[in-house]
Amino acid sequence: MSTMLQTEKLEYSYPALEEGEEQTRALRGVDLTIEKGSFVVVLGHNGSGKSTLAKHFNAILLPMGGKVWVEGMDTVDETRLLDIRRRVGMVFQNPDNQIVSNVVEEDVAFAPENLGVPTEEIRRRVDDALGAVGMSEFARHAPHLLSGGQKQRIAIAGVIAMEPACIVLDEATAMLDPVGRQEVLTTARRLNREKRITIVLITHHMNEAEDADRVIVMDNGKIAMDGTPQEVFARVEEIEAIGLTVPDTVQLLYDLRRNGVDVPLSALTVDECADAVAAALK
Amino acid sequence: MLKDITLGQYFPGNTPAHRLDPRTKLLLVVLYIVGVFSAKFVISYGVMILTLIVCARISKVGARAMLRGLKPVLIIIIFTGLLNMFFTPGDPLLSFWIFHISRQGLRLAVFMVLRIMLLITGTFLLTYTTSPIRLTDGLEQLLNWMKRIHVPVHELAMMMSIALRFIPTLIEETDKIMSAQKARGADFESGNLFQRARAMLPILVPLFISAFRRADELAVAMECRCYHGGEGRTKLSPLRYAGRDYFALAAGVCLTAGVMVLGYFGF
Amino acid sequence: MEPILQVQHLTHTYGVDTPFERSAVEDMNFDIQDGEFVGIIGHTGSGKSTLIQHLNGLLKPTSGRILFSGRDIWAQPKKIRDVRFQVGLVFQYPEYQLFEETVYKDIAFGPANMGKTGAELDRCIRNAAEFVGLQPQYLDRSPFELSGGQKRRVALAGVIAMEPRVLVLDEPSAGLDPEGRESLLRNIRDYHHKTGGTVILVSHSMEEIARNVDRILVLKSAHVLMDGAPGEVFSRSEELLAAGLDVPQITRVAMALRRRGVLVSPAVYTVEELERELLALRKGGAGC
């Protein structure tokens, strides 16, 4: 597998708001390599640096120390800016603030229009992108009448229309209700599986990490943990020390183990957990 | 309440009028305005009214929808009518107390009122049948020549379409903020003018802050989608003149010319 | 004792006489007792927001009525503001309503509108700030330089400062991270405990509702689908799932265990409860 995103000793600080105040060090040396085609979830509480990291992946922010490469392109290289942005699409938190047009299909067409794609090709891409997120029937609708989850799917379609290799969802589920969140997650998983698009999902909902290929936990501007969901969530004490919680399934297994029941900590989903508990009690 | 305001007034449809190129419709409206101002007497006004009725029929816009469009300017229309009726000197027709109505006054009033109504309903037909985004596209294309004198036509058009996109969002937000402040006992209905203006602060401050935040986020989102100005941009649905556009324009020119001639000969 | 709030045959229809006519709330009936901690759960569009805006008279019923302490809140429409001071409503993402130069002044907005002044006003503000866990040194800062979580606390304090008898919270923890969510809910629980006031918590999250309230109202398409203690409601998990609603993850584990022949109670909804039941089962079954 080849490398999609890579950072080396990445550092970033936000300037102080007022004189005399310290600047905020958001990233303190992040070394990270994300493979093409993987589904990576980045967890962390507010202020852990996870969103700052995400904004380096398509040159919205540029490193103050260290390097970021997108498919081998250095993000500091201004001549490659459009190429970088075309390869790594971003979906943000607030669905209302990333929709440009008052007709769904016009909005999805925005990026290819900017890239100077010929008209017939734009049409094909828009239809494909809307199909990929399951929103074809809403092509002529006004976005402000859609639900939060639908708006985020439109935003995803707008990114797919650039035919990117990677989509970064920067807390894209934070403002949605459970139904909307599920819509976005299912869409992201399908794109990963069917189109082999690399997905980087930034979130603080532990449950969204359940079936990721890899979970990265950020804390205090650094990578605190990195591994499969099973590996990461098994480290219950560390996760709690950071101020995050583990899924209730893992919490249950952890508590049972402390009481001497022999269950593994790696059973994340409801069914796996029930299997493990049932087996231990038999 | 606020949500009931319909801005843009576009009614989706698939009539020949809807299918016309927005540039054609913009030019037709200009021609129509020229026509209305050239109309002098009964026959030429009759032609203009008939034209409007035919266009409305083609656009499948009902009489009630057209009249509703006049509602916001009703006061202006009445005022213009009355002003012309009472203050035009001429052969007296009717007089009571200090008011005198002359024959010329009455005629002028009728024509003035008609003129305003035709101008407004004519323009409304354009917005009824053209989506705001197509209208903006049309304007951008028509005014393209102004780029040469350094008018930022693309940027203005982009701003206009973003404004149109965010009007419903901001109206909804205003509603929410108003409810939230009312829940804290804000009172927008009583007090004198100054007090009422002050009472708007708890709405306006959050609304502005939110609008700036939205602008910030939207700018980043647009950049992420490779926006870099109008240069080299293509279109999902580019504007193309079709046979019907040439026909419509030719008909428009003939009609306006005809009305001007009628006016010249005093009909 | 008389219920603090009574909802009787409440119906609210949007867009009457237009093609978009739609009832968001239809013939709803329930009482809320003084001092209860009630959770309301339901999908977006189930009528939650419309319902809670009736409780403090922001919306007027199309038919039916709301009684506060036994009196119809719309009996004297001119006095509807008094009802808003008694039934404090905190909207979703309330930090977007902040407007004053300082936190102190912003919290003061509500109680000042009630006519409170001087030492009384000051007491209300400081108490409210304490309830939501805002340190006194924040009071003189601008609300706009605070973090998202702190802004939300300021907004919450702005309603608590009116010292309402009923506090209605619409998704108070939306968008916060796990730590922020838990600490805010702890503040709300403490508030309920200390004041003995009535609290109504609206949420999408079954886990959040399950851990905090004494009673749950489940709404579905403009009607009350279920009304009962958390254990009662979650023992009908199959129905909840069929209605397209989520149930706590731990309840789903219990359901899955029952399917595997481990007979835990279907009404568990917290990790601790399920753990206790499982340990008891193990001890009971240790002989085999």
Structure commentary:
The complex is a heterotrimer of chains A (282), B (267) and C (288). Chain A has helices at 50-56, 81-87, 104-108, 110-114, 119-132, 148-160, 178-194, 229-233, 236-242, 248-258, 270-281, and strands at residues 3-14, 24-35, 39-43, 65-70, 73-74, 88-91, 166-170, 198-203, 214-219, 222-227. Chain A has 282 residues and is an alpha/beta fold. Chain A has one domain (3-229): Rossmann fold, CATH 3.40.50.300. In chain A, the strands form 2 sheets. A 6-stranded mixed beta sheet of chain A has the order 6-7-8-3-9-10, with helices on both faces. A 4-stranded antiparallel beta sheet of chain A has the order 2-1-4-5, with helices on one face. Chain B has 267 residues and is mainly alpha-helical. Chain B has one domain (2-264). In chain B, β1 and β2 (99-102) form a beta hairpin. In chain B, α2 packs antiparallel against α6 (103-129), α3 (42-59) packs antiparallel against α11 and α4 (63-70) packs across α6. The radius of gyration of chain B is 24 Å and the shape is flat. By secondary structure, chain C is α/β, with parallel strands linked by helices. Chain C is 40% helix and 21% strand. Chain C contains 11 helices and 10 strands. In chain C, strands 6-7-8-3-9-10 form a 6-stranded mixed beta sheet, sandwiched between helices. Chain C is globular and about 65 Å long.
Topology overview:
The complex is a heterotrimer of chains A (282), B (267) and C (288).
Chain A: E1 3-14, E2 24-35, E3 39-43, H1 50-56, E4 65-70, E5 73-74, H2 81-87, E6 88-91, H3 104-108, H4 110-114, H5 119-132, H6 148-160, E7 166-170, H7 178-194, E8 198-203, E9 214-219, E10 222-227, H8 229-233, H9 236-242, H10 248-258, H11 270-281
Helix pairs in contact in A: 5-6, 6-7
Chain B: H1 16-19, H2 22-38, H3 42-59, H4 63-70, H5 74-87, E1 92-96, E2 99-102, H6 103-129, H7 132-142, H8 153-183, H9 193-199, H10 201-224, H11 243-264
Antiparallel strand pairs in B: 1-2
Chain C: E1 5-14, E2 22-32, E3 37-41, H1 48-55, E4 63-68, E5 71-72, H2 80-86, E6 87-90, H3 103-113, H4 118-131, H5 148-160, E7 166-170, H6 178-195, E8 198-203, H7 206-212, E9 215-220, E10 223-228, H8 230-234, H9 237-242, H10 249-259, H11 271-284
